[in-house]
Fold each of these.
Amino acid sequence: MSATRQQHVVICGAGIIGLCCATALRARGHEVTVIERTPEARDGCSFGNAGMIVPSHFIPLAAPGMPALALKWMFNPKSPFYIRPRLSVDLITWGLRFLRAANPAHVARAAPLIRELSLASRALYEQLAAETANEIGLVQRGLLMLCLSQHALDEEAHVALRARELGLPAEVVSGAQAAILDPGVRMAVAGAVYFPLDCHLSPQNLLATLLRRALTAGVKFQWSTEVTHWRTASSRVTAVTTNNGEIPADAFVLAGGSWSAATVRSLRLTLPLQAGKGYSVTLPHPRQLPHLCSIFTEARVAVTPMGSTLRIGGTMELSGLDESIQRARVAGMTEAVPRYFPDFSAEDFRDLPVWHGLRPCSPDGLPYIGRFGRYHNLCAATGHAMMGLSLAPITGQLVAELLSGEKTSVAIDALSPDRFG
Ligand SMILES: Cc1cc2nc3c(=O)[nH]c(=O)nc-3n(C[C@H](O)[C@H](O)[C@H](O)COP(=O)(O)OP(=O)(O)OC[C@H]3O[C@@H](n4cnc5c(N)ncnc54)[C@H](O)[C@@H]3O)c2cc1C
């Protein structure tokens, strides 16, 4: 434990980000209370995701080409992307900021930072696996970006080139070489890009492990408790108001996922955030079990072996906090499987429960990590979109460093929650 002054820190949200913040803060000696609006037996975005740790995802969502692709997909009910048209000032402002960020200069600035965060997080996952006899199920075999067409493979080859320029190993392989890399499944692909540093794990096991470690370390949890208001005094937050009473503390962490923006609205803080709904379906007895995780490049579907099960996940629907399931989009996902893995059938997925989660998405594809200028003792830890699991351990470490008055191990000015003014 460090010699910094011990504080009482309240964390709003017990998803993967909140739990990683809790354990990192507790390891520095702080008293930590996590407030979570759902009961302890819960679900949510951090549980049913694809479980991938992805240094390969160094290009932010806001990138050139994305707006045109999004527009094309909008009109196909089975496509992986959809924005529910609605007159929402938040959505329109978010969209304009997304368009502004989707340029080469932003990607050039963001990519090295995402790379640094990803590699630091990956190292922390290795450490966690070592400390827990790998009960989180970390598998370090890499990821295949599988391409049906030569055109997609050529585009991915460009990404591979940029990855190597950033010092990330990436190899373009033929269909035959992909089959050698993953003998667990028969594929029908033109080729793939192999990212050997990517890993996968079981999110459920990870969350259970983190919760157990937090409890053992002395972190307190208040389940079924929702942060509704904040009490302030000049430039400090002094307490959170909840349905179970007021909880005073020295510092606060906002880790409320897609609900974060609404949670700080009463503080008049603007945090541009849209929920990006995604689905997953888990096959309990797959016909074949790949050894590696992969992404179907054209279909934008993530495929992850988890123990003896196989999970497929995907879609990005900007429909506000609506949690309904759009069956056509789920069908779009499951119908993609036999195109890449021809021994599977879309029927394999019929009647399986569909899981959904709301990813907290910032307009520029970067998370919000840092103190709010207006309230110095309130720290944001949200907006990780498609990389929340991947970046959770480093997010926890950075928040703990900040609230302990230490220099952060990664420069995070670009992640400020105030960056949109
Ligand atoms: C289909 C799919 C696949 C994905 N695959 C991957 C992947 O392979 N790798 C990866 O890195 N990421 C992946 N993600 C993204 C990842 O799941 C998210 O980025 C991550 O779970 C976000 O975690 P979080 O803790 O910020 O939010 P959440 O998990 O949503 O947690 C936030 C918590 O805060 C609570 N809360 C909110 N407001 C309040 C309040 N006012 N008071 C009290 N509690 C509150 C909520 O109840 C919730 O439990 C995927 C997502 C989806 C949907």
Note: The first helix runs from residue 16 to 27.
Amino acid sequence: MFEIENWHRDHHEKKLKGRRITLENISPLLKNIEQVFRVEKIGISELGRDIFSVSFGEGEINILIWTQMHGNESTGTKAVFDFFKLMEESIGKSKIIDKILKKCKITVIPLLNPDGAEAYTRVNANQIDLNRDVIDQSATESKILMQMIDKVNPEYCFNMHDQRTIFSVGEKNKPATLSFLAPSVDEERTITIRRKETMKIIVAMNNMLQKFIPGQIGRYSDEFYPTATGDNFQKMGHNTILIESGHFKNDYQRENTRRYTFLALLQGITSIIQAEKEIDFHSYFNIPNNEKKYLDIIIKNVNYKDKKIDIGVLYIEKIIKGKVNLIPSVEIIGDLAFYNANEVILDSKKVLKNENDLKKWLKNEYIKAI
Ligand SMILES: [Zn+2]
């Protein structure tokens, strides 16, 4: 993987970058790859935007990957286009890529919620969270995903999301750069045979990533969500791996995180074809749980309302003139000794009398455009 990590630094899809990735950004790239892969229009969104699938490989193991079912979660989209590029450049030159193409048929929906991507929202144009709509199927995008499940009949699915900076891992509260989940199929969180298979793939991805970002991989709570996509697909017999791409220090564009997401995907698919019997699914439970102990900024010992206190700040993303702006927002006030942050400011000489003072000061000092 070290070689491929290196490859990625120079060869990733440079036309996609930053946080906001829209249909307009990916359309010319889809046109380009038509020569190599099967690109199909699989439907249109609520507001009439095209939704595409890209497929390749001739094997018997069907894999379905979808990205940006939450419109403002674009890291997975960048990672799949990097994956297309790796495929394109390596066909006939790399044993492992040729093996993937021989053993699998991979179908990717590289932007399931183009209206949400345009508006930079989690939800679709009708305010539906597609990741909670698998039973109701009230969104046209949910129907398209379900049709693809029926058509592809995947043995494995990768459900690609982004998580906020707030998620931390382990005792040192490092940022959760990537987090995984093997969804439950019932309230008892039964470990079925198929769920064990999903867990094994996650163990393989975690083992690989620990070499690059030690201590920055977390595990999501496996509480059963009756309306969640992954839980239902897993229940239907399609092993579903949730990948959440998160924060990496100072990487607000998520370009480093993108590289690790790409590596995780490649490792996941490689492990599927190798059907690694020696992997023990129990190791899944050794991956630390995600906590919420990471912030964008901690300002220590601020003189606020006549007390010395720590202020924890999270950025809220807002689109201004087509660009993502990070607006500081107070998340927590108190003793933050057990928290970690992207930026820790040790001592501010500022005296702040009230909430208004605090809000104004944050907005003036810490607003950021990315
Ligand atoms: Zn999401």
Note: The chain has two domains: 2-291, 294-369.
